[in-house]
Automatic annotation (TrEMBL):
This is Antibiotic biosynthesis monooxygenase. It comes from Fuerstiella marisgermanici. Keywords: Monooxygenase, Oxidoreductase. The keyword Oxidoreductase applies. PROSITE patterns: ABM (PS51725).
Length: 104
Protein backbone atom coordinates (compact mmCIF):
# COMPACT_ATOMS: atom_id res chain seq x y z
CA UNK A 1 0.00 0.00 0.00
CA UNK A 2 1.25 3.49 -0.88
CA UNK A 3 2.79 5.56 1.89
CA UNK A 4 3.74 9.22 2.16
CA UNK A 5 6.62 10.48 4.26
CA UNK A 6 6.84 14.02 5.59
CA UNK A 7 10.18 15.25 6.85
CA UNK A 8 9.97 18.64 8.56
CA UNK A 9 13.22 20.60 8.42
CA UNK A 10 13.63 23.73 10.54
CA UNK A 11 16.40 25.76 8.95
CA UNK A 12 18.64 28.11 10.84
CA UNK A 13 17.37 31.70 10.60
CA UNK A 14 18.20 33.17 7.22
CA UNK A 15 19.33 29.86 5.71
CA UNK A 16 16.04 28.72 4.16
CA UNK A 17 16.79 29.95 0.63
CA UNK A 18 20.28 28.44 0.72
CA UNK A 19 18.78 25.13 1.86
CA UNK A 20 16.26 25.19 -1.01
CA UNK A 21 19.06 25.90 -3.47
CA UNK A 22 21.14 23.04 -2.03
CA UNK A 23 18.19 20.63 -2.46
CA UNK A 24 17.77 21.82 -6.07
CA UNK A 25 21.48 21.75 -6.90
CA UNK A 26 21.90 18.27 -5.45
CA UNK A 27 18.69 17.17 -7.22
CA UNK A 28 17.71 15.30 -4.08
CA UNK A 29 14.36 13.99 -5.31
CA UNK A 30 15.75 12.68 -8.60
CA UNK A 31 18.45 10.86 -6.65
CA UNK A 32 15.73 9.14 -4.61
CA UNK A 33 13.95 8.06 -7.78
CA UNK A 34 17.17 6.81 -9.35
CA UNK A 35 18.07 4.42 -6.52
CA UNK A 36 14.68 3.23 -5.22
CA UNK A 37 12.26 1.87 -7.86
CA UNK A 38 9.35 2.25 -5.41
CA UNK A 39 9.72 6.04 -5.32
CA UNK A 40 6.61 7.62 -6.87
CA UNK A 41 7.13 11.35 -6.46
CA UNK A 42 8.44 13.99 -4.13
CA UNK A 43 8.05 17.65 -3.31
CA UNK A 44 10.00 20.22 -1.36
CA UNK A 45 7.35 22.35 0.35
CA UNK A 46 8.06 25.82 1.72
CA UNK A 47 5.97 26.76 4.75
CA UNK A 48 4.06 30.00 4.31
CA UNK A 49 3.43 30.44 8.05
CA UNK A 50 7.03 29.99 9.23
CA UNK A 51 9.70 31.00 6.74
CA UNK A 52 12.34 28.82 8.39
CA UNK A 53 10.39 25.57 7.87
CA UNK A 54 10.57 23.21 4.91
CA UNK A 55 8.77 19.91 4.38
CA UNK A 56 10.07 17.14 2.15
CA UNK A 57 7.05 15.06 1.12
CA UNK A 58 7.69 11.81 -0.73
CA UNK A 59 5.32 9.14 -2.02
CA UNK A 60 6.37 5.49 -2.06
CA UNK A 61 4.73 2.36 -3.48
CA UNK A 62 5.05 0.66 -0.10
CA UNK A 63 6.45 1.02 3.40
CA UNK A 64 9.19 -1.43 2.35
CA UNK A 65 10.26 0.94 -0.43
CA UNK A 66 10.45 3.80 2.05
CA UNK A 67 12.49 1.63 4.42
CA UNK A 68 14.89 0.82 1.56
CA UNK A 69 15.40 4.57 1.19
CA UNK A 70 16.01 5.03 4.91
CA UNK A 71 18.64 2.28 4.77
CA UNK A 72 20.30 3.47 1.54
CA UNK A 73 23.77 5.06 1.92
CA UNK A 74 22.79 7.86 -0.47
CA UNK A 75 20.25 9.10 2.09
CA UNK A 76 22.98 9.46 4.71
CA UNK A 77 25.16 11.25 2.16
CA UNK A 78 22.36 13.70 1.34
CA UNK A 79 21.67 14.29 5.03
CA UNK A 80 25.31 15.06 5.77
CA UNK A 81 25.42 17.60 2.96
CA UNK A 82 22.22 19.35 4.06
CA UNK A 83 22.82 19.35 7.84
CA UNK A 84 24.62 22.73 7.86
CA UNK A 85 21.34 24.46 6.99
CA UNK A 86 19.29 22.85 9.78
CA UNK A 87 18.63 24.42 13.17
CA UNK A 88 17.64 21.03 14.62
CA UNK A 89 17.32 17.40 13.62
CA UNK A 90 14.49 16.87 11.11
CA UNK A 91 11.23 15.33 12.32
CA UNK A 92 9.73 12.60 10.13
CA UNK A 93 6.35 10.91 9.94
CA UNK A 94 5.01 8.25 7.59
CA UNK A 95 1.38 7.97 6.55
CA UNK A 96 -0.47 5.20 4.77
CA UNK A 97 -2.65 6.61 2.00
CA UNK A 98 -6.24 6.02 3.08
CA UNK A 99 -7.93 8.01 0.31
CA UNK A 100 -6.63 9.89 -2.69
CA UNK A 101 -8.18 11.97 -5.44
CA UNK A 102 -6.50 13.70 -8.36
CA UNK A 103 -8.60 16.25 -10.23
CA UNK A 104 -8.58 15.99 -14.00
Amino acid sequence: MEVVSHMIVRTSPGKRDAAIEAYRKRDVLRECADVIPGFIRGELLVCQDDLDVLCVATHWKSADDYQQWLDHPLRADQSNELVPFAAAAPESSVYEVGLSWIAT
